[in-house]
Amino acid sequence: MILASASPRRASLLQELGLPFAVRTSNAPELTPEYLSPAETAQLNACRKALSVAREHPGALVLGADTVVSADGQHFAKPASLADAERMLAQLQGRVHQVATGICLVHWAARRWRVFADTTAVTFRKLQPDQIRRYLRTIHPLDKAGGYAIQDEGHVIVECIQGSYSNVVGLPVERLKAELAAWGVRPGG
Q: Which residue, 13, 22, 56, 58, shows the most beta carbons closer than 10 Å to its own?
């Protein structure tokens, strides 16, 4: 299996499953078409990543993933700066938002693929500006959709979630295990 993602969080989740895999980063740019829902956007980008790597490794099962954070029709991508991350968290504080992770599994030579998405509702605590700044000093927000990481001091900003925790981290492990079983891939962890 090949993970078409540079995300250390996704690699860690796959390792926890006991799956042998290699990492090959995709060069496909992420798109955010306004006419697609967050889940559809995540699926589109997951497919673009997986297909770009699968063409180079046609005999391997390739997993592409993309995560989109959204609230009230607005997408919260990876922040461009610390100030941008602070703005995002200020907009999300005290509110519910959705985290959609799209997954694309592709085996180029077998001409087989599967695309799906999982969405988790995340409720942020009410946060003061100083609490947001303090939280941002504890993580590296620039490579994270929405500017936060639930697995890194998430209890400070997250009140509750409805759905898959691992989905918010970047890979819906429960659903992925079921999908991989349909391909005959059995996680060892």
A: 13
What's the CATH code of the domain at 64? 3.90.950.10
Dihedral sign for Cα 52, 53, 59, 61, please.
Answer: negative
Low-confidence stretches of the chain (pLDDT beneath 70): 188-189
189 in any annotated domain: no
Strand boundaries in 108-150, DSSP class E:
112-124
Residue 74 pairs in a beta bridge with 71
Number of folded domains in the chain?
A: 1
Listed in sequence order, the residues at least 6 apart from 20 whose beta carbon sits closer than 8 Å to its beta carbon are 1
pTM to 2 decimal places: 0.93
Asked if 143 is an active-site residue, the reply is no
Domain containing 40 equals 2-182
pLDDT digits (tens, 9 = 90+) for 136-173: 999 999 989 999 999 999 999 999 999 999 999 999 99
Query: What is the predicted pLDDT for the residue at 188?
Result: 67
Q: Where are the alpha helices (DSSP H) in the chain?
A: 8-17, 38-54, 82-92, 129-138, 154-157, 165-169, 173-182
pLDDT for position 94: 97
> Rounded CA gap, 123 and 162, in Å?
9
